[in-house]
Amino acid sequence: MIERELEDGLRRAAAQQRAVAERALADLDLTPAQLAVLCIVSEQPGLSAAEVARLERLTPPTMSVIVGNLVRKKAVEKRPHPDNARVQQLSVTELGARLYREGAERLLASQRRMRSVLPIGAEALVKQWLRAVAESGP
C-alpha cells in the first residue's frame, strides 16, 4: 500500500534524523531538545521555562527536566522575574553559548550531509511539502 510506504518512510527518516542529531551532539553531552532550548534562550533571554515549553510544544514537566539538566551543566541560569518572584527567567551562560554554537555547527554539518542525498533541485520542494504537512494540523 502506498499509504503504508509513505508512513514508514517518514517514520524511518525522522528516526534517522534524530539518531544523526544525537550522535552529532553526544560528546558535547547535549540532547537535541537541550540544544533547542539553548537556541531559544540565546535568541530570547529572559523567557520562562513555561514560555519556552509553549514555543517548543513540550509539556511543562518535560521542560522542567530539560532546564534542570542545563542548569546542572551550568549552561543556563535562572533568575527571578523582576515583577513576579515566582517566575524564573532563563539566560544562557558563557558555557551555554559555547555549547549552542558548537552544537549548531555540528547539526548544520549533519543536515548538509543528509541533504546531499536529495536529487538536484528537490530540496525546495521537500521543504515546501514538509511545511505544508506540519501546518495542515491534526
What's the order of the H and E elements? Answer: HHHHEEHH
Derived from helix and strand composition plus strand pairing, the structural class reads: mainly alpha
Task: Quote the beta fraction.
Answer: 5-15%
**CATH architectural grouping:** Orthogonal Bundle
Point out poorly predicted stretches: none
**Main β-sheet, spatial strand arrangement:** 1-2
Give the mean pLDDT. 91
CATH class wording: Mainly Alpha
Can you describe this structure in just a few lines?
By secondary structure, this protein is mainly alpha-helical. The chain has six helices and two strands, in the order ααααββαα. The protein has a single domain (2-135), classed as Orthogonal Bundle (Arc Repressor Mutant, subunit A).
Element layout with pairings:
Elements: H1 2-25, H2 32-43, H3 49-56, H4 60-72, E1 76-80, E2 88-92, H5 94-115, H6 122-135
Antiparallel strand pairs: 1-2
Helix pairs in contact: 1-5, 2-5, 3-4
Give an account of the 3D structure:
- This protein has a single domain (2-135), classed as Arc Repressor Mutant, subunit A (Orthogonal Bundle).
- 67% of the residues lie in helices and 7% in strands.
- The longest helix is centred in the N-terminal third of the chain and has 24 residues, at 2-25.
- A two-stranded antiparallel sheet has the order 1-2.
- Strand 1 and strand 2 form a beta hairpin.
- It is built from six helices and two strands.
- It is mainly α and 138 residues long.
